[in-house]
Design a protein that fits this description.
Helix content is about 40%, strand content about 20%. It contains 27 helices and 30 strands. Helix 16 packs parallel to helix 17 and helix 18 packs parallel to helix 21. By secondary structure, the protein is of the alpha/beta class. Strands 5, 6, 10, 11, 12, 13, 14 and 15 form an eight-stranded mixed β-sheet that branches. An eight-stranded parallel beta barrel has the order 20-21-23-26-27-28-29-30, surrounded by seven helices. A six-stranded mixed β-sheet has the order 8-2-1-9-17-16, sandwiched between helices. The N terminus is likely disordered. Strand 11 and strand 12 form a beta hairpin.
């Protein structure tokens, strides 16, 4: 036997201690014995053999296949006791909505443990119950390998907390894990009930012939208002039975956590350890990483991690190498699942934001909450239900006839007197090709191509209200007669040759002005010819940028008038819509964020004061802009600098002020307001900010940020996370992105330019051929 910490598999047969007799520990023991029957494997468990404090366990078809490959014997046993269901039912606002094709199976946790215990004994694993496992060091000294599968509150993890460095995020909602003999055998059921103290909801599913899991969840505020914390378990259960009385069919709710004092409600702790191994000790299951119950994958993670570690211990030359492979392989899977779980749990934490949605949209929002299920994936699962949901969306948008069965991205949208043919927006993208503020043939061809590409709305890049307000020498303007003539030529073409509407975005660079062209170094000062800049306060963008002048009242009046003059020019050019840029650290953004606004007058300090000047600009522009044409404002909804800057909660209040002032739609971006920002990127990473503003403020929003597939667009729109979706880089790579997306989706309702119709027809023929070939395969 090796010495502690040597990490070498010096003998073929190992003495293994597994701390914790849950599914992770038992399945690891089984997996080790399957790989070498000579291993001496002992499972130590502090509770009795028949103690279990959960109800049902949910597994996917994929996990079942993995179990079958690893151990066909126990997989057959487990499958015999599975309860299967294909449907999800959502009960909300008195409506029960059912969709199918989801493919779940469940088994009682106690039954699963009994089967795994039986298989472990059959393979020669020693099972030691009612045994103290508080101190892993004792086992590490007497065994070659120790696996700590001792749960969320792992004693082993806590013993070496400085090594494992767990990040434990205690989440907002309270929940209690109960059971019932009421039948929920036809669908995984979500029930939302409004009570005198707020919303309470349940996750319910059958796991054997006569028992179902019934998890009750609510916000901390609702939990406190009910006084659950001061109740006994039976008192708490009685209240839950009253709340869900009409769904329980006369059946009681039950607890199997009588060993816990109080009402047994808890907050879910999201666990992720920086390291999963130390010397000859490895963490597994919830001890290493947890996944929220709302996606039902905690047991999946545990079982698949058990197989992986057993495999690597057997295949690698020593424990160090085995542990490295185990962590590298499983961490990636865990992070993927935790990301989905985070999306899911956050949806439930903020569910009261969505409970005012129509039941159709609420159901869709719930089904797609983790972002693992996309729009077209839902079509594969239940095309009939999704078709009805798409028809509902189109009707809500005012469409009719043949348009009713089109995807959400092809629904019309109206702002004031402007109606868009679809919800796709070509986002503003700096071209740096202007000469003395004047757009050139580059701009004409660039925007004309994208307008021909099928998008409902095309933005021009931020166009500056003065020469000093330019970001770079290559930025265009709205301040000279030649600018007006060039922009009018473009707008006239767009209106004559396409169905697109076109929006002018106006702004002032503030402290980020007088910098180089984008490809020469973003936000880097010019090597020569710099012009004076100004901002809310004398705060430089970075140490290498010049310090701007803090604007005085005269400066503020001047810039306000420049915004108005630019808006008037944009109207004369014929633009259909106007956007005021108040994001990304430019002039108006510098007033909004406390990172750069250090004023002590009426324009600094509180959020209301910091919003005062941007709202002055808006009101002045709104007065000059035709009443039938909409105005948007772009904001940075997160400075990504913590509570020192604008947070998503602040963004809700910013949007509320804009909405009250009469802004028609909020273009929700984020960041670029501070060089110290630490953004968190990912697919659709800014969409949650749009979602929150739209559903808390009740304001139309536009989502932007790493959105690049039709599925992304349709999911965002159908779930009510935004009203319009702006794509930037995809339109740089493909000006005809919308037309090509229509081909991919089989939609023939988009308008192609007449000279391009032969190309359109060929694309559709090729798509049909490829689809037919795929079906034959």
């Amino acid at each position: 036997m090796m010495g502690v910490g040597e990490g070498k598999k010096e003998i073929a047969h190992m003495k293994v201690a597994v701390l914790g007799g849950g599914p992770a520990g038992l399945y690891f023991a089984i997996s080790m014995k399957l790989r070498d029957a000579a291993h001496e494997v002992t499972v130590f468990e502090r509770n009795r053999a028949d103690d279990t404090f959960g109800w049902g366990v949910v597994l996917s078809a994929e996990t079942l296949e993995n179990l079958s490959r690893n151990d066909p014997v126990s997989a057959v046993w487990i499958k015999k006791h599975f309860a299967y269901w294909d449907d999800i039912a959502v009960i909300h606002d008195g409506v029960r909505t059912v969709s199918t094709g989801h493919g779940f199976c469940g088994i009682g946790r106690k039954r699963l443990l009994v089967l795994l215990q039986r298989r472990a004994r059959e393979l020669g694993v020693k099972l030691m119950f009612e045994t103290d496992i508080a101190d892993p060091k004792t086992y590490m000294e007497t065994h070659d390998l120790v696996v700590a599968a001792d749960g969320l509150n792992s004693r082993a993890r806590n013993t070496f907390v400085d090594v494992f460095k767990p990040d434990i995020d205690t989440r907002k909602c309270k929940f209690v894990w109960l059971g019932t003999n009421q039948k929920f055998d036809d669908a995984f059921t979500f029930i939302f009930e409004k009570t005198e103290h707020g919303w309470v909801w349940a996750h319910a599913y059958q796991f054997d012939s006569d028992t179902a899991t019934f998890i009750v969840e609510c916000s901390e505020q609702t939990w406190a208002a009910f006084g659950f914390g001061a109740m006994t378990q039976q008192e708490s259960i009685a209240v839950c039975e009253r709340i869900f009385q009409k769904h329980l069919g006369g059946h009681a709710l039950m607890t199997n956590a009588n060993h816990i004092r109080g009402s047994a409600w808890i907050n879910f702790p999201r666990v992720l350890c920086e390291r999963w191994s130390y010397k000859n000790l490895a963490l597994m299951g919830d001890a290493a990483a947890s996944a929220h119950f709302s996606i039902g994958s905690g047991t999946k993670l545990a079982l698949e991690s058990a197989v992986a570690l057993a495999e690597y211990v057997e295949s690698e030359p020593d424990l160090d190498a085995a542990f490295r492979k185990y962590e590298d392989a499983r961490r990636t899977e865990v992070l993927k699942l935790q990301s989905a779980a985070r999306n899911s749990l956050e949806w439930f934490e903020e569910v009261e934001r969505y409970l005012g949605l129509d039941p159709v949209q609420f159901n869709y929002s719930l089904l797609t909450r983790s972002q693992r299920i996309s729009h077209e994936n839902l079509r594969l699962r239940d095309a009939e239900w999704l078709g009805r949901a798409e028809e509902w969306f189109q009707r809500q948008a005012g469409a009719g006839g043949n348009s009713l069965r089109r995807a959400p991205m092809f629904a019309p949208f109206k702002l004031r007197d402007m109606t868009l043919n679809n919800r796709i927006v070509v986002s503003p993208m700096a071209q740096y090709k202007a000469v003395d503020g004047c757009p050139t043939d580059w701009h004409f061809t660039h925007y004309a191509e994208r307008a021909k590409g099928g998008a409902g709305l095309v933005y021009i890049e931020m166009t500056c209200v003065s020469p000093e307000g330019r970001i770079t020498p290559g930025c265009p303007g709205f301040y000279a007669p030649e600018h007006e003539a060039a922009w009018k030529r473009l707008v006239d073409f767009v209106h004559a040759e396409t169905e697109a509407k076109i929006c002018a975005q106006i702004g002032h660079s503030g402290a980020k002005g007088s910098t180089r062209l984008g490809w020469e170094g973003t936000d880097v000062p010019l090597t020569s010819g710099n012009w004076p800049i100004m901002s809310a306060s004398a705060v430089a963008w970075s140490l290498r940028n010049q310090v701007p002048k803090a604007m005085d009242r005269a400066d503020m009046d001047l810039v306000r008038d420049q915004f108005v003059a630019s808006a008037e020019m944009a109207d004369r050019c014929g633009f259909d819509m106007l956007e005021i840029h108040a994001a990304h650290g430019y002039l108006l953004s510098s007033f909004i964020t406390p990172v750069t606004n250090q004023r002590t007058d009426a324009y600094g300090g509180s959020l209301e004061n910091r919003m005062r000047y941007p709202l002055e600009i808006f009101r002045a522009v709104r007065a000059a802009w035709p009443s039938g044409k909409p105005i948007s404002m772009r904001i940075s909804a997160n400075d990504w600098v913590g509570i020192e800057g604008v947070t998503p909660a602040d963004a809700v209040e910013i949007a509320r002020l804009l909405h009250e002032a009469g802004v028609d739609i909020c273009d929700v971006s984020a960041g670029q307001t501070s060089a110290a920002a630490k953004p968190v990127y990912g697919r659709m990473f800014q969409t949650p900010f749009s979602d929150r503003i739209r559903n808390e403020v009740g304001m139309a929003t536009m989502a932007v940020g790493n959105i690049y597939e039709p599925d992304h667009v349709n999911s965002i729109l159908m779930a009510g996370r935004a009203d319009l979706v702006a794509l930037a880089r995809p339109h740089l790579a493909d000006p005809y992105w919308t037309l090509h997306a229509a081909v991919t989706l089989g939609d023939r309702g988009v308008k192609w330019p007449d000279p391009y119709l032969p190309g359109r027809d060929q694309l559709y023929r090729l798509a049909e051929r490829d689809a037919a070939a795929g079906l034959k395969v």
